[in-house]
């Protein structure tokens, strides 16, 4: 049987339309062998988590540039615990260095601050895939 590829849901919560970064990231991940599902713009957190379950993804990446990351991550924490899910979730976009620790305290496996290079993000997901023994 073919090995399962590592699948990532890239979610875009919040009311803003900043979608260039998440699309660039989606292409970089696909180019590196990942399966990627994109939620589309302006999806509520409960819908993003629902999509993650429906698509049986291995990880969720939230792209947030609106400045509302702490509120959205609080919602993420509540939604994940309400559904008793252990899917790793990662945050990136426009994230000030000073907020990284707070986001991780809310349950994110990692938060990548503004200015993080694409290679670093791709390498991080490769590491997660290896830990879960998934191909990319
Ligand atoms: C381009 C841009 C726009 C474009 C958006 C076009 C589009 N379709 O995306 C336009 C002109 C429409 C726009 C509008 C606005 N914008 Co604007 N915009 C920017 C700008 C200059 C660049 C964003 C960008 O595309 N970067 C290029 C991409 C490739 O990089 P990136 O998004 O950072 O993504 C990379 C990484 O962050 C990372 N990444 C991204 N997502 C994820 C997810 C995960 C899981 C991981 C691991 C990594 C990751 O990987 C990506 C690739 O390397 C930023 C400032 C900035 N320098 O970030 C402001 C900025 C985001 N905008 C801002 C604002 C305020 C607005 C407006 C509200 C302005 C206004 N008053 O009208 C409007 C909102 C309109 C709307 N409906 O949303 C603010 C947000 C403030 C805040 N966070 O508190 C910023 C930060 C500017 C500022 N310094 O004030 N904007």
Can you tell me about this structure?
- The protein has 136 residues and is α/β, with parallel strands linked by helices.
- It has a single domain (7-128), classed as Rossmann fold, CATH 3.40.50.280.
- The protein contains 5 helices and 5 strands; from the N terminus they run βαβαβαβαβα.
- It has a 5-stranded parallel beta sheet, with helices on both faces.
- β1 (7-11), α1 and β2 form a beta-alpha-beta unit.
- It is globular, with a radius of gyration of 14 Å.
- The mean pLDDT is 97.
- Bound molecules: cobalamin.
SSE diagram, text form:
Layout lengths: L6 E5 L8 H12 L3 E4 L6 H10 L4 E6 L4 H14 L6 E5 L6 H6 L4 E2 L6 H14 L5
Parallel strand pairs: 1-2, 1-3, 3-4, 4-5
Bound molecules: cobalamin.
Overall pLDDT confidence: 97
Give the strand tally. 5
**Strand order in the sheet with the most strands:** 2-1-3-4-5
Oligomer: single chain
Query: Which percent bin holds the helix content?
Result: 40-55%
CATH homology-level superfamily = Cobalamin-binding domain
Concise structural overview:
By secondary structure, the chain is an alpha/beta fold.
Tags for this model:
single chain, 136 residues, alpha/beta, Rossmann fold, 5-stranded parallel beta sheet, 5 helices, 5 strands, binds cobalamin
């Amino acid at each position: 049987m073919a090995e399962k590829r590592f699948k990532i849901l890239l979610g875009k919560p919040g009311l803003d339309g900043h979608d260039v970064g998440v699309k660039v990231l989606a292409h970089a991940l696909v180019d590196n062998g990942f399966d990627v599902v994109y939620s589309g713009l302006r999806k509520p957190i409960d819908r993003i988590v629902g999509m993650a379950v429906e698509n049986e993804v291995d990880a969720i990446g939230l792209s947030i540039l609106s400045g509302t990351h702490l509120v959205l991550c609080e919602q993420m924490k509540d939604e994940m615990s309400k559904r008793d899910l252990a899917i790793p979730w990662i945050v990136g976009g426009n994230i000030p260095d000073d907020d990284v620790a707070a986001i991780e305290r809310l349950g994110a496996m990692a938060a990548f601050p503004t200015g993080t290079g694409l290679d670093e993000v791709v390498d991080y997901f490769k590491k997660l895939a290896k830990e879960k023994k998934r191909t990319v």
